[in-house]
Amino acid sequence: MSLLSCTNTASLKVSPNWSQFFEGQLVSLSCEDEGPGWTLRRNTSRGTRRHCGTEWGRGNGSSCRIRTLFSWDSGVYWCESSEGQTRTSISLSVTGGPLVLHSPVLPVMEGQEVSLHCRTRPPSNRSADFYKDGVFVGVGPAGHMTIPQVSLAHQGVYRCDITGVGQSPPSWMSVSEKSTTTTPSVPPSVPPSVPPSVPPSVPPSVPPSPGSLALMVPVGCTCALVFLIVLVLLVIRCKRRRTAGQTLI
Question: What is the domain count for the chain?
Fold first, then answer.
């Protein structure tokens, strides 16, 4: 049977969250977080687009419970609105064999822990060999294997084998990429402001010392006094010349 991965946001809830069941087990399905008008439908060997509550299972259309599973309940299940919109397609497998692999039927978020269980009927604690996409990946003591942090690389088809018992049907495990949170943009670093260029420093005018002032004052006075004496002498000489000229006349 073709195994389908989930599409869009997982609105179809499955309890227990397994993809494989033994005949005689029960399962509950519901369309959640979709509002009114959504219906559970399925495609199986007994028909396509069958409506829950009237043609299979018990419920009110958006929720359904199958109390006793049979092999013909294997198929694809999904949620569909009254307008024909679809959400989440999953594949359930029901077997009458001795071995099933319990793996998540709904997508698991990247980084989560995932447990795989190889179950037998009747139950046993025997170790199991696990395979992914046909490649051996490890031995699980007591039929149990844990992936501590699942990544996108773990997405694929799994099965388990137990020597002397058999092997499980294939089971698809879907991994959703972890949503990235938007980090606030960091503004570009602004270089420190460069101070304006400083003009060459002008040495401050140095006031004359008191000693130099004392020296400058007498020198100035002496020059003025000499000038005054010379001027007086010239005036007297001129007067004498004039008086001498008048006497000669």
Answer: 1
104: exposed, middle or buried (C-beta count within 10 Å: 0-12, 13-18, 19+)?
Answer: buried
Whether residue 58 is contained in a domain is answered as yes
Strands 27-31, 12-15: pairing kind: antiparallel
Angle at 109 (CA atoms; ends 104, 110), nearest 5 degrees = 120
pTM > 0.70: yes or no: no
Structural domain includes residue 223 = no
How far apart CA 76 and CA 41 sit, in angstroms, is: 8
Amino acid at 148: P
Domain interval for residue 60? 9-96
Task: Strands of 3-52 (E only): list them.
Answer: 12-15, 20-22, 27-31, 38-44, 47-51
Backbone angles phi, psi at 238, to 5 degrees: -65, -40
Residue recorded with tokens 């000038």: 227
Backbone angles phi, psi at 121, to 5 degrees: -130, 115
- Cα 113 from Cα 18, distance rounded (Å): 15
Which residues are CB-neighbours of 57 under 8 A, at least 6 positions away?
29, 40, 64, 65, 66
Convert the pLDDT of each residue in 121-142 to its tens digit.
Answer: 999 999 999 999 999 999 999 9
Which residues are bridge partners to 22 per DSSP?
A: 95
C-beta of residue 21 within 8 angstroms of C-beta of residue 27 = yes
Taking the CA atoms of residue 69, residue 105, residue 90 and residue 59 in that order, the dihedral angle to the nearest 10 degrees is 50
